[in-house]
Amino acid sequence: MSLLSERQKEELQKSILEYLHANNFTDAFNALKKETGIDYTPDPKAKYAGLLEKKWTSVIRLQKKIMDLENRNAALQEELSLSPAKRAALQTDWVPRAPAAYVLKGHRGQVLKVAFHPTFNIIASASEDATVKIWDWETGEFERTLKGHTRGVNDVAFDSKGNLLVTCSSDLFIKIWDVQNEWKNTKTFPGHEHTISSVRFMPGDQQIVSASRDQTIRIFDVASTSVNLLPCLHFVDGRLIATCSNDQSARIIDPLTGETKMELRDHQHTIEVVVFAPVSSYPAIRELAGLPNTDRSNRSGAYVATGARDKTIKIWDTQTGQLLRTLQGHDNWVRSLVFHPSGKFLLSASDDKTIRVWELSTGRCVKTVEAHGHFINCMAWGPQAPADSTKTNGASGPGKAEPEKFVNVVATGSVDQTIKIWLP
């Protein structure tokens, strides 16, 4: 049974006759014309002129497209053939790489802090221009500006559910903004006597803790606006606060009593940042320091990392005060530290304009990203699904290092007045 209709056969034969005539194959032209019995007069303006070549080249293009699709299909099949664990590893080991996906512009002063909303694709940025700006990090679009502070906004943080935003400023005030009510400023807390450098919601979201250059930490009750005064400075983990200061020390403090549990000293300059290590990073830190896997080394809040103006990063055992390792490589002040959610890496941002990725198990710098055109003030990792809203960071219980869900996105803020969004 013929695959071609009579019309298609005639079109093909006339196309061949036109091709033979155009290329001076006179004998072949006459033989085919006689054999087919077609009464055809060649015409360079007829639709058959060049039709055979067009059909042929389109077949070649189609064949190439088919080959490309077959190669793509083979690659996808290979990816699908990987075990779920291997596929997950492709994502869980992601670290930022240049170029950034978005450069967010709009602030008129340096960007001092960035914070991700825990569930929405929203990021808040605090700036020296006295404003907070809200952005959609997935599209890079600007959403709104929050005005209320009269001097630079030094820190910004969401509560665990993302219902409230807290900010602190050099104007000596802390403000709470209602995310679900058009971001209205619903509360303002006075109390500090100098620039407020840091603020966070305590686990449970009923209190906020702030650190100031007046050398105090204060804990505010969100509902009653009452305040408790603690002697000393920065970050929360369930049952402990880690603080850092220009006196070149970091301290581990019990927020209930204000008692200093441990003082960490080895930096040679002001400490800019201190962060608790998540439980997921404990195996790598133990390998780095040659520590045994004991109940004590699995407790929440067991380790912190500090970054300082002496250009170094230090990792500490908070229970013994022991310095476990010093990471050297930055050429200027270390401003921000973020543990990779997988627990395998530590990311650092510096006044040398780079992000560095450190492999925790070896202490090696495995990647350097030229990130901004000026000093980098801050860095944050995207939303992570908390196992328990009353616990944060290392407070997920002794030795429970279950892999939690997290989103691969990093934000950095700089003296260059931009926020950069880093996506896979």
Automatic annotation (TrEMBL):
Gene Ontology cellular component list: microtubule
Example of a GO biological process term: cell division
Domain of life (superkingdom): Eukaryota
Organism lineage: Eukaryota, Fungi, Dikarya, Basidiomycota, Agaricomycotina
Cell division listed as a keyword: yes
Alphabetical list of PROSITE patterns matching this protein: LISH, WD_REPEATS_1, WD_REPEATS_2, WD_REPEATS_REGION
Name by which UniProt lists this protein: PAC1-like LisH-like dimerisation domain-containing protein
The WD repeat ranges on this chain: 104-145, 146-181, 189-230, 300-326, 327-368
